[in-house]
């Protein structure tokens, strides 16, 4: 019986997911040098783009909803969490609960929308003398009904806080697994927010990012229970699972026993998501997730009534000043910076 349960296409930048995950967006943008005045592309390169709604991938990059700096200006969320893992480039975060951050270079940010929050995610271009590539994943993780109305929470996990497990196969070829959530062997990442499904031991939730050397074999460990669902997203190179090669495809795999995955001759990079399903109704409309239609109606009513907090900036698309390094300022005034 095949250990590969179901394969699916991941050519598009939005990947299918399984409960408790709602959504995964893979952003890979080859941004050019900045214009030197703003932290956006040169104005000449913006001509002909549908600014405010640019998802065409022209010249290998998008402005998304930005019109000067690429990104996603102020927008609301409710009833779930966003986990953003930035492999390359920077993100400027601002939210209506009072958190502000610039992060990237392997950092991860965990935002619990809970009862409601508005935030902006802008992608500043900091180099005027060379390209500004951006590579990130944004994962939407559902909240169980018991904590769907939890207060908004912002957590910053710097790259130096995220364990990287290095393993070698019988031929000495290396694999490196970065842990955002979930134990791998004896390594454990920072604790997730308390309201999260990931904070419950029974969730068996994991978010791993793996890089395999050419032809390397990585053994994925056994899950904690038979109902855990594990999904692989090999987005670079090829990956062979139980005799079937995945190229441009993801797969749901059996997690009940150790599973060997093998990179192709160019190596492989993949995102791994796993967890036990929450198993509750999901009603989603745009940026809101609820357990009922009434819950969705309440989300729109509360947002329109201004109950998602006060937006702290005149701009809907705030970016940090030129030269700002990575930092996070929490709503209570605490400031955190990476150790390196």
UniProtKB/TrEMBL annotation:
Gene3D superfamilies: Jelly Rolls. Residues 64-141 form the Pirin N-terminal domain. CDD domains: cupin_pirin_C, cupin_pirin_N. The keyword Iron applies. Residues 208-309 form the Pirin C-terminal domain. Fe cation binds at residues 75, 77, 119, 121. Keywords: Iron, Metal-binding. GO terms for molecular function: metal ion binding. Residues 311-340 are annotated as: Disordered. PANTHER family: QUERCETIN 2,3-DIOXYGENASE, QUERCETIN 2,3-DIOXYGENASE PA2418-RELATED. This is Pirin family protein. The lineage of its organism: Bacteria, Bacillati, Actinomycetota, Actinomycetes, Propionibacteriales.
């Amino acid at each position: 019986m095949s250990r590969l349960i179901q394969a699916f296409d991941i050519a598009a930048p939005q990947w299918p997911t399984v409960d408790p995950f709602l959504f995964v967006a893979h952003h890979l943008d080859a941004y050019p040098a900045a214009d030197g005045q703003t932290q956006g592309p040169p104005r000449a390169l913006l001509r002909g783009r549908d600014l405010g709604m640019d998802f065409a991938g022209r010249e290998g990059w998008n402005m998304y909803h930005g019109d000067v700096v690429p990104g996603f200006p102020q927008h609301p969320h409710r009833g779930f969490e966003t986990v953003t893992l930035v492999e390359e480039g920077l993100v400027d975060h601002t939210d209506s609960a009072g958190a502000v951050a610039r992060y990237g270079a392997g950092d991860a940010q965990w935002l619990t929308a809970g009862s409601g929050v508005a935030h902006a995610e802008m992608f500043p271009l900091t180099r005027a003398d060379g390209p500004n590539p951006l590579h990130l994943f944004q994962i939407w993780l559902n909240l169980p009904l018991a904590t769907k109305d939890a207060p908004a929470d912002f957590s910053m996990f710097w790259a130096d806080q995220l364990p990287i497990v290095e393993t070698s196969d019988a031929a000495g070829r290396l694999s490196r697994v970065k842990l955002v959530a979930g134990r791998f062997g004896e390594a454990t990442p920072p604790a997730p927010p308390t309201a999260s499904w990931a904070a419950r031991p029974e969730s068996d939730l994991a978010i791993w990012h793996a890089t395999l050397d050419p032809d390397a074999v990585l053994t994925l460990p056994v899950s904690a229970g038979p109902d855990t669902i594990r999904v692989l997203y090999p987005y670079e190179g090829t990956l062979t699972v139980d005799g079937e090669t995945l190229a441009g495809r993801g797969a749901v795999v059996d997690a009940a026993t150790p599973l060997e995955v093998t990179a192709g001759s160019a190596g492989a990079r993949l995102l791994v998501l796993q967890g036990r399903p929450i198993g509750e109704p999901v009603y989603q409309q745009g940026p809101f997730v609820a357990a009922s239609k009434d819950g969705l109606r309440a989300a729109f009513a509360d947002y329109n009534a201004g109950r998602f907090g006060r937006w702290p900036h005149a701009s809907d698309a705030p970016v940090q000043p030129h030269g700002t390094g990575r930092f996070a300022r929490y709503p209570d005034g605490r400031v955190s910076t990476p150790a390196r």
